[in-house]
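Running low. Got one?
___
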Amino acid sequence: MENSKRLYIIGAGFAGRTLAAEIKKKAVFGEVVAFLDDDNEKIGSRIDNIPVLGPIKDVALLLRTNPADEAIIAIPSASREYLIELHSILKKANFNKIRILPGISQIVENDAHFIQTRSIDLQDLLGRNPITINLKESLSYVRGKRVLVTGAGGSIGSELCRQLLSGGAARLYMLGHGENSIYQIDRELRLLQEEGVGEKATLIPIIGELKDSNYVDYLLSKLKADAIFHTAAYKHVPMMEENPVAAIENNVFGTENLIKAAKKYQTKRFVHISTDKAVEPVSVYGISKYLCEHLVLAAGSDPAISKDTNFVIVRFGNVLGSRGSIVPLFQQQIEKGGPITITHPDIRRYFMTISEACSLVLKTGGVGENGGLYLLDMGEPVRIRELAEQLIRFHGYEPETEIKIEYIGLRPGERMDESLLSKDEMPTLTDYSRILQIIRKTPCNLDIYKLLEELRPICTFIPGKQDAYRNSKLLLNLLKQL
């Protein structure tokens, strides 16, 4: 970045002052020419010889004839409504770029660095106000421990890694089967460490397949992980309808392999990430996650595990901005001039930001009871059409007149509405905000281990049962009996 770049920091609080000091010290990001703030006690003062101007709305209008290069929103306590207002003001003020301290900067106390800033996007402005969680306190249970994140290159896995970086873990193992995504999160975390973010955890990237039971056993024998956050899964619903054997092989048997090894090598905490699509599932992906839930619950009820071992499930709906989700898809469609494609005008989904979901997962991992099934409070479902319209306007266009919306019908495995609870499940409050515990009204009679033995020859070549191998018709017939 050039030294001539002018930066305006929105917010003269701790985060803004910390950013300004770092920018001044390094002298490579540009020059902070002013803070903008709405606090009357700060307006007119100077912080490290940088003037504090305000109110923001009035000052920004004056800047319209002399736009700065960048504005950086550094207000961790800002509500969604206030962020929307700020974004509108700054856009009208003709700032060339608007950045924000996202996610972890809103959660980790007294920790703000320029490297954490990024261009503001729609997910910063959507949904409800995120809950404030003291991440260092929540993650005290992993301090000095060895932590394994599976699917570490994915949207949820990588955000868990970012937040675990500040949790004091001694070693952070990042496991995935895609070298590019694991390379990217490994490199990102090392850059964050170089810039002073988090504590000095030893970062270890690992490429491997959970489907390989021998490998998983070998891996955990070496890692001796104290905690496992299991996010790895094939997740694309229509794609898994086309590849049902792969979905069961990867999601179900990969989870079985991981649980077996975790029990054998006495992992103290096993946190499994589940989904609303596991509730009374209508898709192969949903069924695979439904079976995974039962595997984790069965592990938690195993009398052979030690009393200080916890197998926990955390279920939630969609997260905004995840890879393969509708927000990135809609953005790509807008960039090419439309149309935006939606399955149905009335379809709705639950949404939560990635950072909030991950902070609640990490919190649940520490407070969850063995064999517990937990549900994140997702708020009210969002109509997808309204989300599309907001995204179109965010990019400066008008829905229908400039960017068309087309309805393409439900795809295989999709349904109009997702439910967070089945008819046999009841949510109960916990002592922790936005974390609910699910209690079954009636016992489940699914024999998960018997079913796995029926599914195994379909996913693994077994001599004498070769007719079953990769037989998707046989697989679907078994799954339909659930």
Summary: The chain has three domains: 6-124, 135-440, 448-480. The longest helix spans residues 244-264. Residues 6-124 form a domain with the Rossmann fold fold (CATH 3.40.50.720).
